[in-house]
Design a protein that fits this description.
This protein is of the alpha/beta class. The chain contains twelve helices and ten strands. The strands form two sheets. A six-stranded parallel beta sheet has the order 4-3-1-2-9-10, with helices on both faces. A four-stranded parallel beta sheet has the order 6-5-7-8, sandwiched between helices. Helix 3 links the parallel strand 3 and strand 4. Helix 1 packs across helix 10 and helix 2 crosses helix 3. It is globular. The two termini are 19 Å apart. Bound molecules: D-glutamic acid (DGL). D-glutamic acid binds next to helix 3. The site of D-glutamic acid (DGL) has 17 residues, from helix 3.
């Protein structure tokens, strides 16, 4: 069985690549819902429905033993509900689903004042605030939606992104946060630009840097899942729609020249 990695689009390939780098031995299937991306501006219910379809597809048709929902919007709006539903299913039909939001909150909760940049959907859900406060009730959490960053990242416009990054970071920096959480798959693309806009020593909490290790630790603690995973080092990339730009981004963000296939959920 394989490890499934799901995102609304191709941004999750940044996390997928980091996971593969740490654990190249496993077999992976990446699913990007490129036909319906972005999820960030959609309703709670739509994000839940789309994520559920993707999870069902990966578990039933692609025999994944474990699915990482690498999308923050889907993690914020759908993962907890899907986990509850999965838990009610009989043992044999049960697929473990993990999000990327709680691991980021574990890092954020180590600080007393953090700023979160995310999509409108993630910010509105207040999931980062709730989860961080569960771990550290004293932590002050400031959020700012940064809706323009996803299209700019996909267009490769790092230079054009700078004034927007400055605008989105400003209210968080004014409150003298200790760390900035990149609460969206695409934002690690702008890590260098963000570094140049924040005071030296301020931490950037970027999921590609700790999700792989947290997943490896999870597998160590869950030998029943680990032993189901096949190890031939293969990766399959599935998308629900493809354009030249999507293909270019897939190569650039995954760092490998892999042919992607189109599927219907
Ligand atoms: N993958 C989404 C996230 O991490 C960003 C793109 C979208 O809006 O679908 O929130």
């Amino acid at each position: 069985m394989r490890i499934g990695i799901f995102d609304s689009g191709v941004g999750g390939l940044i996390i997928a690549q980091a996971i593969r780098e740490l654990m190249p031995e496993y077999d992976y299937v990446y699913l990007g819902d490129t036909k319906r991306v972005p999820y960030g501006n959609r309703s709670h219910e739509a994000v839940y429905q789309f994520t559920k379809e993707a999870v069902n597809y990966l578990s039933r048709k692609k025999s994944c033993a474990l699915i990482v929902v690498a999308c923050n919007t889907a993690s914020a709006r759908a993962v907890a509900r899907i986990q509850k539903e999965m838990a009610k299913m009989p043992e044999g039909k049960h697929t473990k689903v993990l999000g990327v939001l709680v691991p980021a909150c574990e890092e954020a909760a180590l600080h007393s004042r953090v700023g979160v940049l995310a999509t409108v959907g993630t910010v509105t859900s207040r999931s980062f605030v709730t989860e961080i406060k569960k771990l550290n009730a004293k932590c002050r959490v400031l959020q700012n939606p940064a809706p323009i960053l996803v299209p700019l990242a996909e267009a490769g416009e790092s230079e054009l992104a700078k004034p927007f990054l400055k605008k989105y970071l400003e209210p968080l920096l004014k409150e003298r946060v200790e760390a900035i959480v990149l609460g969206c798959t695409h934002y690690p693309i702008f890590k260098e630009e963000i570094k140049n806009l924040i005071p030296k020593g301020m931490r950037i909490i970027s999921q590609d840097e700790f999700i792989p290790k947290k997943l490896a630790d999870y597998l160590e603690r869950h030998g029943n899942i680990k032993k189901k995973l096949s190890k031939s080092g293969k990766v399959e990339i599935l998308l629900t729609d493809k354009t030249q730009n999507i293909e270019d981004l897939t190569r650039a963000w995954f760092g490998e020249n892999l042919e992607s296939k189109i599927v219907s959920l």
